[in-house]
Amino acid sequence: MRVEIWSDIACPWCYIGKARFEKGLAAFAHRDDVEVVHRSFELDPGRAKGDTAPVLEMLAKKYGRTPDEARAMEAHVASNAHSEGLGYRTEGRDHGNTFDIHRLLHLAKARGRQGELLDLAYRANFAEERSVFDTDTLVALGVEAGLDETEVRAVLADETAYADDVRQDEREAAELGADGVPFFVLDRRYGVSGGRPAEVFTQALEQAWKGRALQPLGTGTDVDAETCGPDGCEVPGA
Amino acid sequence: MRVEIWSDIACPWCYIGKARFEKGLAAFAHRDDVEVVHRSFELDPGRAKGDTAPVLEMLAKKYGRTPDEARAMEAHVASNAHSEGLGYRTEGRDHGNTFDIHRLLHLAKARGRQGELLDLAYRANFAEERSVFDTDTLVALGVEAGLDETEVRAVLADETAYADDVRQDEREAAELGADGVPFFVLDRRYGVSGGRPAEVFTQALEQAWKGRALQPLGTGTDVDAETCGPDGCEVPGA
């Protein structure tokens, strides 16, 4: 079974939802038969590269919240993160364009290090408040994840590298009806939206597992017609 | 959308069903969004490599048919092939173990030449009655398909090369409930068994296309809860 998770590094519910999903997955009997794939989704694709702003200020400005409301929202999210055992600092975090880190996550996927880079990037952004919008930090994270520094720098310097992979993920998210993240897709058949409690994920995995049976189409009356098997070929009327 | 087709080169309904599927696909509006993948299935995996027998004799011996009955079965299949514009010779064709050609098809997949090799192998076996159980013929087919001769020979000489890929395909066929081929799986959601008329495939493709919508799980009452989107993060009660 395959679970694809659309998310953004800048998305706190993705950070928290990933931990809850993993807890839900650990409680699922067939967890060893589940392949998890990260998919790209940008919360703020229209923001120029390098244009960063403190999160609290951005929340206040973009969504018309007072500074106190923005701080209360962050505190609420932080308490959810802490409940999952995740670090979350509510001050000093920057918001920005995440296209480069998504490109880097696709390089990491090609090199078998995507899970490592994803965890490091989330922790850097939310727990350590290192800026994931800064090239030197991205290079350091890539190297920590086990990637080759020269290759990481080359990908970051070439804006077309893995750009199509990011855009393709985003097109698929739109086709699947996802307008927010995290968005979990099980076998391209079931969708779970949001950083739900772990039990929701366990239940969704169980339902998707049961639902794996194929629906037969075009069978008519003779389901063996015009097939060959170990016992020979079915020939109508023979 | 992805269509996986389990088949065997030794299977006449696979040869005919592939042509019917392609005709059905050509009539499907979203044909350019369909990716087709070949999957391995052996009709006679227990037969030793190199142990070949004339098809008519095998049909008579294995399934207890008289020579006339075997000939009538082949004639029926041949008339179906001819209706699809495919060559089909009913005499002189050999039956045997197809493990090596499936391994070679996986090499061809890795080199982007699987479709070419598949068509050449079917034609060799059914229309030209070249023995696809013979190493020199397999090498010639591989080269005709655009593969490197040295690499083809190396794969054929090493019985472990791509063997896991063939076995993995066969395990998945069993998991999906396929005990005969051709077996068509659309988006791992719908199954069509047998070399059905082209219209059946067009209809199945249309139904699978409509059925692509995800079934939401675990939504509860607030479907936007604990997600982030371009308009910010949903915070319960905020």
TrEMBL record, chains A, B:
The record's annotation in SUPFAM superfamilies points to: Thioredoxin-like (SSF52833)
What is this protein identified as? Answer: DsbA family oxidoreductase
**What species was this sequence derived from?**
Streptomyces bikiniensis
Q: Where is this region: Disordered?
A: 219-238
The DSBA-like thioredoxin domain is annotated at 3-205
